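Acyl-CoA desaturase
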Amino acid sequence: MAISDINEYAHLSDADVEALGAELDALRRRVEADLGERDVRYLRRTILAQRALEVAGRLALFGSHRRSLWLAGTAALSLAKIIENMELGHNVMHGQWDWMNDPEIHSTSWEWDMVCASPHWKHSHNYIHHKYTNVIGMDHDVGYKVLRVTRDEPWEPKRLFQPISNLFLAATFEWGIALHDLDLGGALRGTQPMEEALPKAKVFAAKTVRQLGKDYVLFPALTGPNFKHTLTANLTANLVRNLWAYVVIFCGHFPDGAEKFTVDTLEDETPGQWYLRQMLGTANFEAGPAMAFMSGNLCYQIEHHLYPDLPSNRLAEVSVSVQELCEKYDLPYNTDTITVQYLRTLRTINKLALPDRFLKATSDDAPETASERRFDALSPRAPGLRSALSRLKERRMIARGRRRRR
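Predicted structure tokens:
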């Protein structure tokens, strides 16, 4: 099932893991020492571009009875919402720009353009997800309490509807994130005290009223006779933003090779092991500068998980050093095109909708679920994880060839 001994799985000794951690610490210090005016310029230009796109989109929608202006306004608004959520909101609330000491661009004051209230997201994401990344039973982002993405979670009949649930989650992703930390189910079951649940529900309700009022009442009303056209434009822009955010996040967490861990890995976990868990539990996708920007630089999900509070514009350069460390310590660097990473994710979601008896691979050696026991049959021991995975792949290819010849 999930990995319980991360050093054993990675084919690294305690000394190797601590040396890796020390090198990653040194990399962080180098980047932090170099932060300065060019980073500030990048952020302020991003904010200016995002606001210009939103203003342009809103202005175009005053003429939204014309198809060309509806399309232009909707496109500009969609881009503005994506940039605000991905490159600004997500990253500012991670504390990536707190070193600037600007009270308007700070993790404690930023509120983003979506129904999820920032305090709720910071708790469920910054604290729980990034601290307990892919630890079964601790990190609720493993499937978002909606999808089964690992065999460590027992199959239930409701999983048969998982392909449909996945589509619904994609279209309503901002609502899924908003409800994630509320844990309404826990409040109903009594596992979350009402004195804790009610204040969170009030914050969520207030944010929802503001967000729905802005997008579906105020801005459409401002365009007068074009109310309906502006309303559909806002709905479309939110849908586009939701779908894009969903794809980016899922491609960073659920492709093949994004490993899961048992709570045993948290016992006496060292800083080096925490780094290693982030590297093995996440995945990247290949992107040029434009796609990287539109993804909030979360195409570098591995680097983001190693350094969640480093400015996103530095992750591309950090990735070069991380790949060198993967080469040095014989570790895999999980990246591919966004299409391949998403198709692998989609295969996992659809496959795990079925009961385990219909699945071919073992629960210790499957694309979406693996443990250190997957290497039991390898002899002699591989020098590192990447070499071990390569040997397993060769063995499978040989076995397939033998089956075809029979």
